[in-house]
Amino acid sequence: MSAALALLASALWGTSDFLGGSVSRRLRAAQVLAVSQVLSALVLLVVLAATGRVTSPPGSWIGWSVVAGVTWAAAMGALYTALARGTMGVVAPIASCGMLVPVVVSVAGGERPGALQLLGAALAVVGVVAAAGPDLTSSARGQGRATALALLAALLFGIEIYALARGSEVTVSGSLLGMRLSSVVLVVAVALAQRRRSTPVGGRDLLPLLGLGVLDLAATAAYALASTGGLVSVVAVLASLYPAVTLLLARRFHGERLSRVQAGGVGVVLAGAVLCALG
């Protein structure tokens, strides 16, 4: 069940990244993040109110949820800037390797994945890099800065998913709410600071932005639930296969073609996911 939830999170994150990238062609990244996160926060509050889980006893989860929200917002800012300045084939696989942070920390903390899970995780990492089609020989202007920002995003994403997993050990609903509200404060502040240089968000943008926010929220919830029932060192890898999903959607809806390396990478990703699940 944990493996299935983690893979669901990966599929949802990959879809939300595709939708977010598409919407960002019309709007600033800060606007996309701010509006989608505010809408998803409202959806989360409605769901928690309907299920009677709005409040949770105070505890360490509050700190973990704030760390998750702050690092997520900062990571998204670094990632969007890197994608705008550098080669996407370099930025995407680097940023997705943030999965290694919770893997290393969890194994160091005593988790012991099985042989099949370790092999599957290794294959998944290699597959993600291959599927993203990295062009590490690119000499495009600003690529060095973009690579540095991608590394920063990877580190922040790794901290985020580890912090969310720790907070979810106490309360999934409270951690989700704390993370969402923390990220909303930051992204809204940035969007307001840039409002004079931004095109106003129109009515036609609200539905895709709502969809983006709900997809991201659902992915985060699926990962949080998966982390409570499985090894974080394995769940983090399975939940970080989203670049392959984004790539497939881009091929389907934008006509982007897969090279042989990319197609092989997608296959390796799937093989790694199967091994992790079997393990």
TrEMBL record:
Gene3D superfamilies: 1.10.3730.20. The chain crosses the membrane at residues 32-50, 62-83, 90-109, 115-134, 146-165, 177-194, 206-225, 231-250. The keyword Zinc does not apply. Keywords: Membrane, Transmembrane, Transmembrane helix. InterPro entries: AA-Vitamin_Transporters, EamA_dom, EmrE-like. Residues 3-129, 148-275 form the EamA domain. It is found in: Membrane. GO terms for cellular component: membrane. It holds the Pfam family EamA. Its main location: membrane. It is a multi-pass membrane protein. Belongs to the EamA transporter family. This is EamA domain-containing protein. It comes from Kineococcus radiotolerans (strain ATCC BAA-149 / DSM 14245 / SRS30216).
